[in-house]
Hints:
Layout: H1 2-16, E1 44-45, H2 54-66, E2 70-77, H3 79-82, H4 86-96, E3 106-108, E4 122-127, E5 131-134, E6 149-153, E7 157-164, E8 174-181, E9 189-192, E10 197-203, E11 208-217, E12 219-225, E13 234-242, E14 247-254, H5 260-264, H6 269-276, E15 280-283, H7 297-314, E16 319-323, E17 329-330, E18 334-335, H8 338-353, E19 356-358, H9 360-364, H10 370-375, H11 388-429
Helix pairs in contact: 1-11, 4-11, 6-7, 7-8
Amino acid sequence: xxxxxxxxxxxxxxxxxxxxxxxxxxxxxxxxxxxxxxxxxxxxxxxxxxxxxxxxxxxxxxxxxxxxxxxxxxxxxxxxxxxxxxxxxxxxxxxxxxxxxxxxxxxxxxxxxxxxxxxxxxxxxxxxxxxxxxxxxxxxxxxxxxxxxxxxxxxxxxxxxxxxxxxxxxxxxxxxxxxxxxxxxxxxxxxxxxxxxxxxxxxxxxxxxxxxxxxxxxxxxxxxxxxxxxxxxxxxxxxxxxxxxxxxxxxxxxxxxxxxxxxxxxxxxxxxxxxxxxxxxxxxxxxxxxxxxxxxxxxxxxxxxxxxxxxxxxxxxxxxxxxxxxxxxxxxxxxxxxxxxxxxxxxxxxxxxxxxxxxxxxxxxxxxxxxxxxxxxxxxxxxxxxxxxxxxxxxxxxxxxxxxxxxxxxxxxxxxxxxxxxxxxxxxxx
Length: 430
């Protein structure tokens, strides 16, 4: 039954891949329409090799056709990603466009411990005294994992509890959790809610303990207990909420104000990403790099090269999408022309690294388009950030571009299989 429905979707995707956005804007969901948005520019560009997305698409087609496997997507950026409106919309689309493809919520963190905003859909309750550190705080020396944020406590009676909001469109029950933390003899012991743990294992190299739970839950409490006099503290890097189900997981790794060097500070990035083994990484770092007169394209590209190398340590076959900067202003008054430079740099990087580009800058309408987006309620007064409807539109457009491109991949695969079949038949007839 799954296979029959999947073939129907794939045939439709193949046929729709040949048409423009305007001709099928109602599939697989309606996208908000504005005359000033450059919908025809909303596509994946291949500056280098045309097989840059094939590894990801192969995993996605196996999931859709056979109902097998988990597809992991990671989106890395600044405040656009921490808020998780744009990435959250993409998560929703990926996990629901072909039936139920919800394999879990993925990476979460108690951001309020750092006095910053938590992504929509969940919250943490806490006890004890905690301090925090973010990868954008240049004067502080801290250890960071893939999330770019760390929480620290010396309070041996501290606790955290994650709870999902009942208003979520998709219910994120989970039966497995990875807790990333500093594993050392001085670390407190983790204790989960009584009776929930079926099994557990610790990976001291990657720096996490994984707990297999007895059943699916949507909230979980944990305590950090001192059981020995040598134990002095607990340092948390984040958590990964997972299931055993086939489907898609989209992890948002965003820190307000983050630039490319911010994530280069995350010395545990590749080790922790390897525990996810992302099939697709969507990179959106650039708006903070290019904020001001001292932006250096050379340094920007050099730093991104280093970051991509770290990402590919986690999975050498990972597909990568660069999303260019949105149009923006500096201090609300001065047009930021560096958006064009970032656009140029990302296309050079994509060609060099066998990656692809989704050109947000062009989709918006190019230089000074943020003013129009603000006028229509899609961008905020700071002329940097979008409003919730603006982020939702961007999430829909990125997803739509990926799915249309996926349709082209399926068409290419279908053609190759047909040609191989015909060749084999001709060979037999001879």
